[in-house]
Amino acid sequence: MLTFSFRRVWGILLRHLYLLKHSFSRWIDLLYWPTVDLLLWGFITLYLQKDLGKMNIPSLFLGALIFWNILIRAQQGLAVGFLEDIWARNLLHLFVSPLTILEYIFGLILYSLFKATLASAIMTALSCFLFDFNFLSQGVLVFYLTFGLILFAWSIGLFTMAFILYLGQEAEILAWALALLFLPFSAVFYPVSALPPLFQKIAALVPPSYFFEAFRSLLLYKKLSFSLLYKGYILTFIYLSISGFFFFFAFRFAKKQGKLVKIGE
Amino acid sequence: MHILLKVKGIYKIFGKKEVLKNISFELSSGEILGIIGPNGAGKSTLLYILLGIITPEKGEIYYFGKNFFHERSSILKKVGFASQYVSLPYSLTVKENLMVFSHLYEVKNPERKIDELLRLFKLKDKERVLTRALSSGEMMRLNLVRANLSDPEILLLDEPTAGLDPEYVKYIGDIFKAKAEKEGKAIILTSHQLGELERIINKILLLKDGVILGYGTLNEVFQKFSVSHLEELYFKVFGDVNL
Q1: Do B165 and B125 share a domain, yes or no?
Q2: Statement to judge: residues B111 and B5 lie in one domain
Q3: What residues in A contact B106, CB-CB < 8 Å?
Q4: Contact A261/B73, CB-based, under 8 Å?
Q5: CB A137 within 8 A of CB A87
Q6: Which chain B residues are closer than 8 Å to A258 by Cβ?
Q7: According to the model, what pLDDT value does residue A29 have?
Q8: Which residue range is the domain that position B54 belongs to?
Q9: DSSP alpha helices (H): ranges in B93-160?
Q10: Cβ–Cβ below 8 Å for A93 and B105
Q11: Which residues of B touch A252 (CB under 8 A)?
Q12: Best-predicted range by mean pLDDT among A239-253, B78-92, B155-169, B190-204?
């Protein structure tokens, strides 16, 4: 029987907010890296701007950087949130409670949204204040791109969690590495056309490449390419379907093998 | 007395090893069932199957007349679990951990319930302490608080008195007895503290290599094996295991 309780979803979110409340290092991770990234890239692009006159280099780079950070934070909110429960040996307690796996995933999704929102807010404020670039100046069009990237981030988060359940805790490195695997093909800081032909073919299968291309067209030509957006969303939903299927398969496998009891030991 | 739990023909295999073979038993309100067996007998695996965190190869489980595999979430609201071997997240305070789980169990008026249970299990003064600062005995009592948050009909307890000081072993044993006798709750527990176990259980299940060697009321099993107390029974049935 399918049951769903928002109160239990809130319970999962609360568990991670309490953890954050007590952990200085987790606050540093959440606030420090986006700030350093933004300052570093902001000043590099200001320097490049002097040589490359016409194009608005800081806007292109800083916008891409903020989008990429949103993606990373959303993906890690899911995958690292799951790891936090493994490290605390809390999965057993969670799954002998009435909590369903769907409620657990939704709780982590809310936590990942919280992290992505906080990181992007800091970066947006800094880029406005220091580099005169307003990430939100394109209005609702930015939301379309952001939402697509967050959906993709969750699919990578689900893949990571599935690998950890299937292969064991040794696979936890994927929580940091898997999204970076997509970075070269995502055309974050350069157009797809800058890639070698083989890489361009791979990029065609990577949803963020469409979203970042759409972002560049929005900034350069003040027009959002909806055909790029559609392709990006269709691919993203394919990724989400496969990752969701793989995760639920891995969860059932872990219950069959008794891994939920042992994981984290 | 009415049946709260019915287990029929549970089998579990890990790799090539059969860890549970054809396990069947029942538990009614007011009963305290002790599962006894040497290490590796399959006691914990059986408890985890009853909690749905390990899936059996075969078999059926009914709680309150409902199929556990079909109505897991609603059933687990009325089933509490505590284990000596599992701690709650160290980085949260005692109260925060309990608040999280009170949401997961959808406890009404959680503040009042947490306060009541912290007092019952003598942890009220630890409410704002980080869980990592608790001793092993306090951690076990915290697990027991968590297990009782939803006022469950059935408690599944894995070594609930291990690590506790003797006065707490007796105190908590008395709580279990009162829950069964006065409130009609049912309890399943595993323990190696045979003296204490004999004081509180009224039903027993002997498990060795995943097979039930004996099952029934304490007197029935004592008669079957011609013994007069639990320690004698243990050594008669399992005595050679660790030699």
Answers
A1: no
A2: no
A3: 5, 7-8, 98
A4: no
A5: no
A6: 14, 45, 48, 54
A7: 82
A8: 1-78+153-243
A9: 94-104, 110-120, 136-148
A10: no
A11: 55
A12: A239-253
Using an 8 Å CB-CB cutoff, list chain A residues near B154.
none
pTM over 0.90: yes
The model's pLDDT over B123-159, given as tens digits with 9 standing for 90+, comes to 999 999 999 999 999 999 999 999 999 999 999 999 8
Domain boundaries, chain A: 10-262
Residues B181 and B126 in one domain: no
Q: Are residues B27 and B108 in the same domain?
A: no
Task: Please give the share of chain B, as a percent, with pLDDT higher than 90.
Answer: 83
* ipTM of model: 0.92
C-alpha–C-alpha distance, residues B45 and B41, integer Å:
9
Q: Give yes or no: residues B147 and B159 share one domain.
A: no
Same-domain check for residues B8 and B74: yes
**Nearest chain A alpha carbon to B100:** A11
| pLDDT tens for each residue of chain A, 265 residues long | 678 999 999 999 999 999 999 888 888 888 888 888 888 888 877 777 766 666 677 788 889 999 999 999 999 999 999 999 999 989 999 999 999 999 999 999 999 999 999 999 999 999 998 888 888 887 888 899 999 999 999 999 999 999 999 998 888 888 888 888 999 899 998 899 999 999 999 999 999 999 999 999 888 888 888 999 999 999 999 999 999 999 999 999 999 999 998 887 6
Judge residue A102's burial from the number of C-beta atoms within 10 Å of its C-beta, 0-12 exposed, 13-18 middle, 19 or more buried: middle
Chain B from 72 to 101: CB within 8 A of any A CB: 72-74, 76-77, 79, 81, 86-93, 96, 99-101
The answer to whether B54 contacts A7, with C-beta atoms less than 8 Å apart, is no
Q: Which amino acid is at A1?
A: M
Q: Please check whether residues B140 and B186 belong to one and the same domain.
A: no
Rounded Cα–Cα distance for residues A70 and A112 (Å) = 9
Domain count, chain B: 2
Task: Please say if the pLDDT value at position B243 is more than 70.
Answer: no
Listed residue (B98, B80, B89) closest to B175, CA to CA: B80
Asked if B59 and B158 sit in the same domain, the reply is: yes
CATH number at residue B11: 3.40.50.300
